[in-house]
């Protein structure tokens, strides 16, 4: 079991994805948080529920090379731009990238990578949509924008979701998201 080699693979993935997102310290923190969560998920998968509760933050001590490798592969995948839906709306330049609206997500994207700042999910057995900031969105808002007055908002339709995303872009991230020429 080469855990040191696994750590180096994950660290390299964090460095590469951070560079794809512009290389700032806040982007590094967003990527590192995701890497942390992925490694924890893949390490805990090999333990029963009772042992997981006892692990607390010590899962790094139990991580296998394979867990590090799977986490680094998944990290690169979730921050990549492959397989995304078409752009509905986008901002001008923003912190080395742009804010982009795709399907039910407000995203930060550069030419090489991106991640969701805010997501929308339809409530189960309801017509309402829940719109909320992701942990990455909260980190960007803390550094470059301002915290929203309300953590979660609700919309009655997809049009309402789009309005919520535009309002978040303006109020929290302090930039305007306009319809994409390709979407019109």
Features:
184 residues, alpha+beta, 2 domains, 7 strands, 21% strand, globular, plasmid
Element layout with pairings:
Layout lengths: L2 H18 L4 H20 L4 H7 L3 H4 L2 H14 L8 E8 L2 E6 L2 E5 L4 E9 L6 E5 L1 H10 L7 E4 L2 H14 L6 E2 L5
Antiparallel strand pairs: 1-2, 1-7, 2-3, 3-4, 4-5, 5-6
Shape category: globular
Order of helices and strands: HHHHHEEEEEHEHE
For the CA atoms, what is the radius of gyration?
Answer: 18 Å
Mean pLDDT: 88
Question: Residue ranges: pLDDT <50 for 5 or more in a row?
Answer: none
Instruction: Return the structural class.
Output: alpha+beta
Helix content: 40-55%
**Percentage of residues in strands:** 15-25%
Count of individual beta strands: 7
Major sheet size, sense and barrel closure = 7 strands, antiparallel
Distance between the termini: 54 Å
Tally of individual helices: 7
Biggest sheet strand order reads 6-5-4-3-2-1-7
Question: Could you explain the architecture of this structure?
Answer:
There is one protein chain. With 184 residues, the protein is of the alpha+beta class. The protein has 2 domains: 3-78, no CATH class; 87-183, no CATH class. 47% of the residues lie in helices and 21% in strands. The protein has 7 helices and 7 strands, in the order αααααβββββαβαβ. The protein has helices at 3-20, 25-44, 49-55, 59-62, 65-78, 135-144, 158-171; strands spanning 87-94, 97-102, 105-109, 114-122, 129-133, 152-155, 178-179. It has a 7-stranded antiparallel sheet. Helix 1 (3-20) runs parallel beside helix 5 (65-78). Keywords: Plasmid.
């Amino acid at each position: 079991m080469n855990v040191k080699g696994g750590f180096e693979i994950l660290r390299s993935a964090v460095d590469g994805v951070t560079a794809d997102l512009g290389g700032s310290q806040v982007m590094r923190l967003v990527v590192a948080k995701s890497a942390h969560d992925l490694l924890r998920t893949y390490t805990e998968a090999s333990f029963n529920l009772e042992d997981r509760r006892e692990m607390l933050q010590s899962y790094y001590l139990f991580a296998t090379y394979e867990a590090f490798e799977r986490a680094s592969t998944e990290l690169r995948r979730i921050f990549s731009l492959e397989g995304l839906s078409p752009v509905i709306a986008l901002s001008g330049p923003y912190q080395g990238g742009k804010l982009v609206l795709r399907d039910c997500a407000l995203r930060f994207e550069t030419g090489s990578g991106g991640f969701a700042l805010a997501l929308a999910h339809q409530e189960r057995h309801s017509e309402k949509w829940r719109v909320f900031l992701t942990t990455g969105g909260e980190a960007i808002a803390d550094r470059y924008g301002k915290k929203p007055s309300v953590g979660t908002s609700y919309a009655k339709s997809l049009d309402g979701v789009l309005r919520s995303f535009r309002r978040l872009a303006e109020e929290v991230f302090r930039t305007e998201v306009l319809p994409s020429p390709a979407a019109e």
